[in-house]
Design goal:
The chain is mainly alpha-helical and about 210 residues long. It is built from nine helices and two strands, in the order H-H-H-H-H-H-E-E-H-H-H. It has a two-stranded antiparallel sheet. Helix 5 crosses helix 7 and helix 7 packs across helix 8.
C-alpha cells in the first residue's frame, strides 16, 4: 500500500515539475520584451502592396505602414474618401489639384470616387517626399527638435501636411520656424503624432506616377 502511494506521489511531483516549465513568463518582470516609446520601429512586413495581404488573418495596424496610412487618413478626413474640405483639398488624404496633376491624375471626379486611386496617390507622395528629404532624414533622424524626437515617418507625415520645404525649414531652424497649414495645424504636431511608424521599406522615387 505504501509503495502504491509513493508511486502516485512521485507521478504527481513529476507532472508538476514538467508543467512548471511551460508557465508563461511574467512579462512585467521582463522589460526586454517591450519597446521603449522613444524607439523607432522597423518592420520588413507588411508590404505597401494591398495584394500581399490576401489570405492574411492578422490586422496589420499599430506602427506598421498600413497603420501609418490609416492614422493620417483619420487625421486628415476621418477616413472619408469622398470628402472635399473648404479649401478644396480632396479625399481621404486631402490632396490638392496640383499634386494630383503632378502624379498624373487628371480627373478629380475619378479620384474622389476611387479609393484605390487615392491609396496609390498617397504612397506615390510618400515616395516622392522621401526622395526630396533623404538628406534631411539622414541628418535629423533620432535628434530631438522642439521637444519632439525626429523620425522618418514623422518627417514624411509633416511633409504631407505642409510640403517638403516646410519640414526642411522647420528642422533646419531647430524648430524656430513655425509652419502651419490653412487650418492652423502645425508641422510640429504631425512630426510628433506620426513619429515611429514603419516607413523604411518605402523606396524613394523622384519620378513616381500613378496609373
Amino acid at each position: 500500500m505504501i509503495n502504491r502511494w509513493s508511486f502516485y506521489i512521485g507521478i504527481v511531483m513529476i507532472i508538476g515539475f514538467i508543467s512548471s516549465a511551460f508557465k508563461p513568463l511574467e512579462s512585467l518582470n521582463h522589460k526586454r520584451l517591450y519597446v521603449s516609446e522613444k524607439e523607432e520601429l522597423l518592420y520588413q512586413f507588411p508590404s505597401e502592396k494591398p495584394s500581399d495581404y490576401i489570405g492574411q488573418t492578422l490586422p496589420f495596424i499599430g506602427k506598421h505602414f498600413i497603420g501609418f496610412k490609416e492614422a493620417i487618413g483619420i487625421r486628415e478626413s476621418q477616413g472619408q474618401y469622398h470628402l472635399v474640405n473648404s479649401l478644396g483639398y480632396m479625399g481621404k488624404y486631402q490632396f490638392g489639384t496640383s499634386a494630383l496633376r503632378f502624379f498624373g491624375i487628371k480627373n478629380n471626379s475619378l479620384f474622389l470616387n476611387s479609393p484605390e486611386l487615392q491609396e496609390k496617390a498617397f504612397v506615390a507622395l510618400i515616395k516622392f517626399n522621401k526622395f526630396k528629404l533623404q538628406d534631411v532624414i539622414e541628418e535629423y533622424r533620432g535628434k530631438t527638435i522642439g521637444g519632439v524626437r525626429v523620425t522618418e515617418s514623422g518627417i514624411l507625415a509633416a511633409a504631407h501636411l505642409g510640403g517638403a520645404g516646410s519640414i526642411r525649414k522647420y528642422l533646419e531652424s531647430n524648430g524656430k520656424k513655425k509652419c502651419k497649414d490653412g487650418y492652423g495645424t502645425s508641422i510640429k504636431s504631425y512630426l510628433k503624432q506620426f513619429g515611429g511608424y514603419e516607413t523604411h521599406n518605402i523606396i524613394a522615387d523622384s519620378s513616381v506616377k500613378v496609373h
